[in-house]
From TrEMBL:
Active site (record annotation): E130 (proton donor), D270, E363 (proton donor), E384
Principal location listed in the UniProt entry: endoplasmic reticulum
Family per record: Belongs to the glycosyl hydrolase 47 family.
A GO cellular-component term linked to this record: membrane
InterPro entries linked: 6hp_glycosidase-like_sf (IPR012341), EDEM1/2/3 (IPR044674), Glyco_hydro_47 (IPR001382), Seven-hairpin_glycosidases (IPR036026)
Pfam families given in the database record: Glyco_hydro_47 (PF01532)
Signal peptide segment: 1-23
Name of the protein described by the UniProt record: alpha-1,2-Mannosidase
Source organism superkingdom: Eukaryota
């Protein structure tokens, strides 16, 4: 019996952490993969620059362009003014990737072009969330990289041009927040502000994923308005959670009422969770951690089903839709930052399985019917699986994740590479291509794949990546107490001077419990997944009285003898 249990454990460990010596990944192979990804990036970038720039995105089949920043969310192109040349979206999105690839010359050329030509004074209605994560995030991140002397950019040639552009854009965002609830409109006209009869419907991520970029802009410019606006919206959103600590997917920003009560960790919500945690890392506020902790526990309790995450009604916690979506694949990456590696690994494997089954990740897969969603069979070159794979490799150094990266690279090259760039897949069952290369292919997909095979950029640096893959450094100056002016009188934030500051996102492993006690008696953070048993003596009558183990993040169950524990069922 004992031998049997031992074997089970060995098998379990092999599944979670396979033997690295069995992998064919040595440094030569790693270099070869790095170069393969570099080639992919330039194939996409050069085609964009030749056929689409300065418009927003490349149409790789027709080798033309689309001004998609204004199209995101279904706005028709005829709403744009004549002679509109776009916002050079893909170029802005490529800036941080160019620095990571070490191409300072091209980066400098891009900065110069943007500072001389880019204007946001256009009669274009854009989606606030998309414009924030792609354009504002791209500019702010690139500004920080340009001023970082370790990047070997030509000193003296950079005169804060990107920050000037970012500030101009940030100012154009502000009218969207001028609402009774503090929740922003989803759409804003860059020239004229909020348009007449603008829709009041928005999403959870639309209101709750602005704090990194707008907070960074405030810290860089000293103008508190951006961070204040994003924070006010986030707090209002959080106040709308149900008693189960769940949120819905869509809401009316004017009334503060939920429209869609069902939600999960995918579309419309995903980056809300991501930003609560990353804001805590970047700005060091305990408040963000408290919100994230409650939200994370609720996700694990109400959405998680083994390795999968379904949707549930925020009011009852009852499961609604049993669907796997491509966007959900970011979750294991977030779990790595939280330190919940075992759970991250388990879910990641399932996404890899689905990727291998279809060749890429379909947008939506119906778990209950084991079939593809009839109208969402597409794969628009999304980065989420590559992103999680990168995080899991960083955390474990297990070469198996590089093999996953190789699979992704090979699929992208076989199914999506065309002469004019990389094309989205319209239908994963036929691999029919579609005439669109989203800017996030350069901002995220290529970047995460490159970083998977290249450790040099992150050595001795602490960065967090925004939801669009733009790096922001974790600076101690940003973790200091905010000047009073940042804090509206009805909010309170008092910094506890005794609290230890955390400096690295990757070292912030709050579960397993290795950081529960920093060794000097001070508590760093509670485990993210820990749910205590109902009774302090751990006695129970049923499983529902048992919590979640803080070190392994596994649900405890009630034994025959009436005690909660991690009982091994063999
Ligand atoms: C990106 O624009 C961002 O990652 C966003 O948060 C949602 N996903 C797309 C890419 O899939």
């Amino acid at each position: 019996m004992l031998v049997y249990r031992f074997r089970t454990w060995v098998l379990l460990l092999l599944v979670i952490f396979p033997d690295p010596s069995l992998s064919h990944f040595d440094s030569a192979k790693k270099k070869q993969m790095r170069e393969k990804v570099r080639k992919m990036f330039y194939h996409a970038y050069e085609n964009y620059m030749t056929h689409a720039f300065p418009h927003d995105e490349l149409k790789p089949l027709s080798r033309s362009f689309t001004d998609s920043l204004s199209e995101l969310g279904n706005l028709k192109l005829e709403h744009l003014p004549q002679n509109y040349n776009g916002t050079a979206l893909t170029l802005i999105e490529s800036l941080s990737s160019l620095v990571i690839l070490g191409n300072c010359t091209e980066f400098e050329r891009a900065v110069l072009w943007l500072s001389e030509n880019l204007t946001f004074d256009v009669d274009a209605r854009v989606n606030l969330f998309e414009c924030n994560i792609r354009v504002l995030g791209g500019l702010v991140s690139a500004h920080i990289l340009a001023t970082d002397s370790t990047n070997r950019l030509v000193q003296g040639s950079y005169k804060n041009q990107l920050l000037v552009l970012a500030e101009d854009l940030g100012r154009r965002f502000l009218p969207a927040f001028d609402t009774p609830t503090g929740l922003p409109y989803a759409w804003i006209n860059l020239k004229y502000g909020v348009m007449k009869n603008e829709t009041t419907e928005t999403s959870t991520s639309g209101c709750g994923s602005l704090i990194l970029e707008m907070g960074a802009l405030s810290r860089l410019t000293g103008d508190p308005r951006y961070e204040s606006a994003a924070l006010r919206a986030l707090r209002k959103l959080w106040s709308m959670r149900s008693s189960l600590n769940l949120l819905g997917t869509t809401l009316d920003m004017e009334t503060g009422e939920w429209i869609e009560h069902s939600s999960g960790i995918g579309a419309g919500v995903d980056s809300f969770y991501e930003y609560l945690f990353k804001a805590h890392i970047l700005f060091g506020k305990e408040d963000f951690w408290r919100m994230f902790h409650s939200a994370y526990l609720a996700v694990q309790k109400y959405f998680r089903h083994g390795p999968w995450y379904h949707e549930a009604d925020m009011r009852t916690g009852k499961a609604t839709y049993w669907q796997l979506t491509s966007l959900q694949a970011f979750w294991p990456g977030l779990q790595v930052l939280v330190g919940d590696i075992a759970a991250a690994n388990t879910s990641h494997r399932e996404f890899v399985y689905v990727w291998k089954k279809f060749g890429v990740l379909p947008e939506r897969y119906l778990l209950d019917h084991q079939m593809l969603h009839p109208t969402e069979k597409y794969y628009p070159l999304r980065p989420e699986l590559a992103e999680s794979t990168f995080y899991l490799y960083q955390a474990t150094k297990d070469p198996w994740y590089m093999e996953v990266g190789e699979t992704i690279v090979n699929s992208l090259n076989s199914y999506t590479k065309v002469e004019g760039g990389f094309a989205s897949i319209r239908d994963v069952t036929t691999m029919q291509t579609e005439d669109h290369m989203h800017s996030f292919f350069l901002a995220e997909t290529c970047k995460y794949l490159y970083l998977l095979f290249d450790d040099s950029f992150l050595v001795d640096r602490n960065y967090i990546f925004t939801t669009e893959g733009h790096p922001l450094p974790v600076l101690s100056a940003w973790q200091d107490r905010l000047p009073e002016i940042y804090i509206p009188s009805n909010w309170t934030y008092v910094k506890d001077e005794k609290k230890t500051k955390r400096s690295s996102a990757m070292s912030l492993q709050v579960c397993p419990a290795l950081s529960l006690n920093a060794g000097h008696g001070e508590q760093l953070a509670e485990s993210a997944c820990h749910v205590p048993d109902a009774r302090s003596d751990h006695k129970c009558f049923g499983d529902e009285e048992c919590g979640v183990d803080s070190t392994s993040c596994r649900r405890r169950s009630c034994s025959m003898a009436g005690y909660c524990g991690l009982w091994l069922v063999v």
